[in-house]
Amino acid sequence: MKWFENLEEVMEHYTSTGGFLTSSFDGKINTMTVSWGFIGYLWNKPVIIALVRPQRYTKEFLDKSESFTLSVPFGELKKELGTCGSKSGRDIDKSEVVNFVKAKSVDDYIVDGCDAYFECKQILDFQVDKGLIAQNILDTVYPADDLHYIYVGEIVERY
């Protein structure tokens, strides 16, 4: 499989307008808008590295799941990205904002209507170590001391 075919176009949309990071457990599904992360190779595996702040509802899903998906729209779904990035799944049902469809290879869901999909099996998660970050980044990105958790997922399906 060509894991990174058209990756430049995917990253252009992912970093400018965002993508949907989705996870599920116990029959519940949640998604949030993300635009920070990494797609590449780690340990000879194609991976996505997603960053999630500790207060995000999606973190609870990721912590209880063995997988996640990244769905990236190329110009459509801007309103939905805005809503999923500004409203918590604790307060609204995200399935009323986007249409979830069962993923092909992981026990999870994708957001219908996107142009690029990555299905991932979680292989590592950890919280960023404050002692390893430059002070100027701590000052600008983490003034509330809410350091991201990093979720590494092996890409098992890409379409």
What does this structure look like?
- With 159 residues, the protein is of the alpha+beta class.
- It has one domain: Electron Transport, Fmn-binding Protein, Chain A (Pnp Oxidase, Chain A, Roll).
- 21% of the residues lie in helices and 39% in strands.
- β3 and β4 (45-52) form a beta hairpin.
- The N and C termini lie close together (9 Å).
Order of strands across the biggest sheet?
A: 2-1-5-8-9-4-3
| Terminus-to-terminus distance | 9 Å
CATH superfamily: Electron Transport, Fmn-binding Protein, Chain A
Counted beta strands: 9
How many domains, in number, for the residues?
A: 1
CATH classification, class level:
Mainly Beta
**Beta-strand share of residues:** 35-45%
Which range best describes the helical content: under 10%, 10-25%, 25-40%, 40-55%, 55-70% or over 70%?
10-25%
Mean pLDDT, rounded to whole units?
A: 95
CATH architecture: Roll
- The low-confidence parts are none
Structural class: alpha+beta
Judging from the principal axes of the Cα atoms, what is the shape?
Answer: globular
